[in-house]
Amino acid sequence: MTQDESYVAGITPVGPASSVGRAAPGDEDLAVWRLDIVYEGTAFHGWAKQPGLRTVEGVLEDALTKVLPQPARLSVAGRTDAGVHALAQVASFTCAQHDVSAVLLRRSLNALLPPDVVVTLVSTAPRGFAARSARSRTYRYRLVVSPVRPVVDRSYVWSLPGGLDAESLQEAAARFLGRRDFAALTSSAHLYRSCVRKVAVAEWRSVGADEWVFEIRADSFLHNMVRVAVGSMVDIARGRLSLEEFEAGLASGQRRHMGQTAPARGLTLVAVEY
């Protein structure tokens, strides 16, 4: 055990053979832990673990394996795509009860995690809690409209030269409000039982002279839903797609009738509510 791995008192990293002869814990012996997480998505192939690829779930589970006596399977509030960031991701896992300090567990995980992901809070959760059962998720998309491309924030914004029609952006955003079928905003509609989602907030606001921020809150999201929504609204604001075509595209349920897909780098998960 390294010095970094020894922060969690009472938990000894174990290898595959260490579970031999150990009785499976009953429900009364299980504890639920919640992890609040921040990460920069630039160098990750999204949240979900994939063979041979660097993912947020993958590095977190690797770290947990070193500090827990049995493997932990993570539940997550939002399965972010490759390149998407998170300021308020929530994950949870269930493991056997141990007398473990949440502060020391956080310290131990952060000592093992790479620089582009950090656990900001570790806490116990009520029995039956699962991060995926969030009531709502909020995403934010940053758009910079300037003839001079940004440098410092280049990994967190979509930079566009030229102007946008602000009124068109707001009019298009209002079309997302309410409960409806959003199949047209994903090319993966066939993977869902239903593409009906309820959007409570969808609005643009200006920040300074050249930045626009889109914020959207819904009960859950489809794959690429926010990025297709933003790309389509930008196409409207630049005269490439009319509002009438946009509305017809949404009603059609077909991805091909919508606009472009905005780059992942401008998108961040900023809030999760339970």
What do we call the CATH homologous superfamily of the largest domain? Pseudouridine synthase I, catalytic domain, C-terminal subdomain
CATH class of the largest domain: Alpha Beta
Characterize the overall form.
globular
Total of helices: 5
SS class: alpha+beta
The helix/strand order is EHEEHEEEHEEEHHE
Profile the largest sheet.
10 strands, mixed
In short:
By secondary structure, the chain is α+β, with helices and mostly antiparallel strands. The chain is 20% helix and 28% strand.
Structure description:
There is one protein chain. Mean pLDDT is 89; it is low at 1-25. α1 (56-67) crosses α2 (102-112) and α3 packs across α4 (225-237). Helices cover 20% and strands 28% of the residues. Strands 1, 2, 3, 4, 5, 6, 7, 8, 9 and 10 form a 10-stranded mixed sheet that branches. It is globular. The protein has 2 domains: 26-133, Alpha-Beta Plaits; 136-273, 2-Layer Sandwich (Alpha-Beta Plaits), CATH 3.30.70. It starts with 29 loop residues before the first strand and ends with a strand. The chain has helices at residues 56-67, 102-112, 166-174, 225-237, 243-252, and strands spanning 30-39, 75-76, 85-96, 117-125, 136-145, 158-160, 178-181, 196-207, 211-218, 267-273. The longest helix is centred in the last third of the chain and has 13 residues, at 225-237. By secondary structure, it is α+β, with helices and mostly antiparallel strands. The chain has 5 helices and 10 strands, in the order βαββαβββαβββααβ. β8 (196-207) and β9 (211-218) form a beta hairpin.
